[in-house]
Design a protein that fits this description.
This protein folds into two domains: 94 residues, Signal transduction histidine kinase, dimerisation/phosphotransfer (DHp) domain (Helix Hairpins), CATH 1.10.287.130; 153 residues, Histidine kinase-like ATPase, C-terminal domain (Heat Shock Protein 90). The chain contains six helices and seven strands. The radius of gyration is 25 Å and the shape is elongated. The chain starts with 7 loop residues before the first helix and ends in a 6-residue tail after the last strand. The N terminus is likely disordered.
C-alpha cells in the first residue's frame, strides 16, 4: 500500500458514505421486484373490493364478512403506502450539498476502493493526476459514485483480455477555451479492452440498454444524469488502437461547462 492510499479504516468510512448513493443508483435495478411487491397489495385490494360488491348485492349480506373485507382493504392500502415510503427514504438519504472541491483529492480518497476492486480482478489500475487543478463545485459522494461506477465498468471490460494487457487508467486534466483560460476539469477513465462496437455507441447512455446479461442497463444513464445535474458532460470516446475512454467534464467553480 502506497503512502497515498487511505488506510483500511478510512476506506471503510468512504464505503459507508457511498452507500446511500449506491442505493439510489440501484433503484432502477430494483424496479421489477418493487413492481411485484406493490402488485400484491393492489391485487388484494381489488379482490376485497369485489368481495364487498358481491356481499352488498346479497339480500342476506353478512355484515361481519363485509367489515372484515373492508379491514383487509385498509390493511393492504397501508402496506402499499409503506412500500412507497421505503422507496422515498432511499432518495431522501442522499445529501445534495455541493461544495468547491479539488478533484485530485476526491480521487485520492476513492483510490483505495478502486485499487481493491482492480486487484480482485487481476487488473492494473494507474492514476495520472494533473497538478494544481482548479476546484469544481460538486457533491463529493455523488461524483465519487460516478467515478467508481466507471472504473468498475472498465475493470469488467478487460476481464477477458490477456493478463498482461489488463490496464485501466484514471486521469485528470484541465480543459482550456480559446483564450487559454481554464473552463473545465476533465476526468477520464480508460481501459485496454475491446471497446464498444460502433453500432452500439449511440445507445450507451440510453436507460435499460445493456450488453451484460442480468443487468438493468441503468448505470451509465444514472451517471450521466448526475454529471449533467452538476452542469457537466459525460461522453464516450473510442480509441482507434482499441479500448474505451469515458470522459467526465465538469465546470470549475468560477467557470461554465
Amino acid at each position: 500500500m502506497t503512502s497515498n492510499t487511505p488506510p483500511p479504516d478510512e476506506q471503510w468510512a468512504l464505503l459507508q458514505r457511498l452507500t446511500p448513493v449506491a442505493r439510489l443508483a440501484t433503484i432502477g435495478e430494483m424496479a421489477a421486484s418493487i413492481a411485484h411487491e406493490l402488485n400484491q397489495p393492489i391485487t388484494a385490494i381489488a379482490s376485497y373490493a369485489q368481495a364487498c360488491d358481491w356481499l352488498l348485492s346479497r339480500e342476506d349480506a353478512d355484515l361481519a364478512e363485509l367489515r372484515e373485507a373492508l379491514r383487509q382493504i385498509t390493511a393492504q392500502g397501508l402496506r402499499a403506502g409503506d412500500i412507497v415510503r421505503r422507496l422515498r427514504s432511499l432518495a431522501r438519504a442522499l445529501d445534495s450539498q455541493r461544495v468547491p472541491t479539488d478533484v485530485n483529492s476526491l480521487l485520492e480518497e476513492l483510490k483505495g476502493l478502486a485499487l481493491a476492486d482492480a486487484k480482485l480482478h487481476n487488473v492494473r489500475l494507474r492514476l495520472e493526476l494533473a497538478p494544481k487543478l482548479e476546484q469544481v463545485l460538486l457533491n463529493r459522494i455523488e461524483m465519487q459514485q460516478v467515478v467508481l461506477s466507471l472504473v468498475r465498468n472498465a475493470v469488467e471490460a478487460v476481464e477477458n483480455v490477456p493478463p498482461e494487457r489488463r490496464d485501466v487508467v484514471l486521469r485528470t486534466a484541465t480543459d482550456r477555451d480559446n483564450t487559454e483560460e481554464i473552463s473545465a476539469i476533465e476526468v477520464s477513465v480508460m481501459d485496454s479492452g475491446p471497446g464498444v462496437p460502433a453500432h452500439l455507441r449511440e445507445r450507451l447512455f440510453t436507460p435499460f440498454f445493456t450488453t451484460k446479461p442480468g443487468r438493468a442497463g441503468l448505470g451509465l444513464a444514472i451517471a450521466r444524469s448526475i454529471v449533467e445535474a452538476h452542469g457537466g458532460t459525460l461522453r464516450y470516446l473510442h480509441d482507434g488502437a482499441g479500448g474505451a475512454c469515458f470522459v467526465l467534464r465538469l465546470p470549475h467553480a468560477q467557470g461554465g461547462a
